[in-house]
């Protein structure tokens, strides 16, 4: 793999010329072709991560606190299934369900045909409408792994000696969970988010 990457890096200019000739475009057009999809990819990944964290952090804390309950078991089964399914299968099922069967979202594309003549605000909301389903899929795909990770970090934090000491001193359970345990559980979670 390193040899392939090194070869491509050494011969990038030749690859660029081949691609530009194949497309019949110049280098500037080549960059323009890459910029718009790259913006969409970055936007979807950043906001899917933010949405996934907004869901998984409370869900993971709840599962860790209610460890062994029916709700915890149900969430764990759901996260194992969600974690086990490949992203492309989930995407196909979501497209079929939400775009084809229910008709809530478009099947493909980033804008509606003829939207260039609309006002800027209407174009923005049209783009958000087209980004909604990919954003939902990416968020859903992130839930399984992240929820399990947050739950494991919280369970480990709740079993620490300082938490047992706080309970013995009579500190309220809510303060123990959100002040003491959550701060200790944040270290591996931050590591996960940065690496995500």
For the structure shown, list the relevant keywords:
82% helix, single chain, mainly alpha, 196 residues, 8 helices, elongated
Q: Care to describe what's here?
A:
The chain has 196 residues and is mainly α. Helix content is 82%, strand content 0%. The chain has helices spanning 2-10, 12-23, 27-65, 70-84, 87-101, 120-158, 161-169, 173-195. Helix 3 crosses helix 6, helix 4 (70-84) crosses helix 6 (120-158) and helix 5 packs across helix 6 (120-158).
Q: Note poorly predicted spans.
A: none
The share of residues in helices is over 70%
Q: List the total number of helices.
A: 8
Largest sheet: none
Structural class: mainly alpha
**What's the overall geometry?**
elongated
Mean pLDDT, nearest integer? 79
The total count of strands amounts to 0
Briefly summarize what is shown:
The protein is mostly helical and 196 residues long. 82% of the residues lie in helices and 0% in strands. Helix 3 (27-65) runs antiparallel to helix 4 (70-84), helix 4 (70-84) crosses helix 6 and helix 7 (161-169) packs antiparallel against helix 8.
